[in-house]
Amino acid sequence: MEVAGIPRGIGVAGEIGFPGDALGGGTAYGATALAGVGPLDLTATIAVHDPSAASSITSYGGDVGVAVVGGPLNPLSLTLQAGYGYWKTSGTGVSHVPLGLGIALTIPIPGIAIRPWLMPRADLMIASGGGVSSTDARFGISGGLDVTLLNGLGLRASYDRIATSGQDPTTLAFGIHYIFFRAP
Fold first, then answer.
1. Where are the domains of the chain?
2. 4: helix, coil or strand?
3. Which three-class secondary structure state does DSSP give residue 22?
4. pLDDT tens-digit map of 1-27
5. Which one in 8, 13, 99, 130 has a CA-CA gap of 20 to 30 Å to 115?
6. Residues 41-93 pLDDT 10s
7. For the purposes of burial, counting CB atoms within 10 Å of the CB of 144, is it exposed (0-12), middle (13-18) or buried (19 or more)?
């Protein structure tokens, strides 16, 4: 999800993630297309968890975000966001629906923007397979730091945690993005 505010234009992003043991460990890779115009952003993502393993998992998803507070001249942004992701493992299809509030603060430095961000959210997981279905609602939180140059090239470091009744699943991720068409 684009949690560091609404991107102003059209771009692409790539990310490498390191899921914790509660998520099976290993490595995940993702690619995202993103578009942001005015107060609205849309993304589409594909990701692969452990692509070198025989049982790799491919997931698909996207999100929509709407700016509630913020703009080009306001360093604080609040963004309502909703997403949807889907993957299938061992015959079970899993739908993930996060709903949250992205909070970001842009620290402008000549030629660069540093943006720490935080996103508390509700996570809805719906698993179904073999005629059985289950739904689980949990609390999740993500946080990170984006550093973006004026030319649209940026780097990201992020951490994600979901509260469960056992081991809390976590992921540490690093990414790069480029906004190649800037919207006014």
1. 9-182
2. coil
3. helix
4. 455 666 678 999 999 999 988 888 889
5. 99
6. 999 999 999 866 668 899 999 999 998 987 667 789 899 999 999 999 878 89
7. buried
Rounded CA-CA distance 146/128 in Å is 36
Contact residues for 54 (Cβ-Cβ < 8 A; gap 6+): none
Among residues of the chain, what percentage have pLDDT more than 90?
56
Residue 143 neighbours by CB distance under 10 Å: 16
- Quote the pTM value: 0.87
Residue 130 Rama label (left phi>0; alpha psi -120 to 50; beta): left
pLDDT at 53: 64
Residue 156: C-alpha distances to residues 27, 69, 143 (Å) = 17, 22, 10
CATH classification (class only), 9-182: mainly beta
Q: How far apart are CA 82 and CA 173, in angstroms?
A: 20
Q: Euclidean distance between the first and final Cα of the chain, in Å?
A: 22
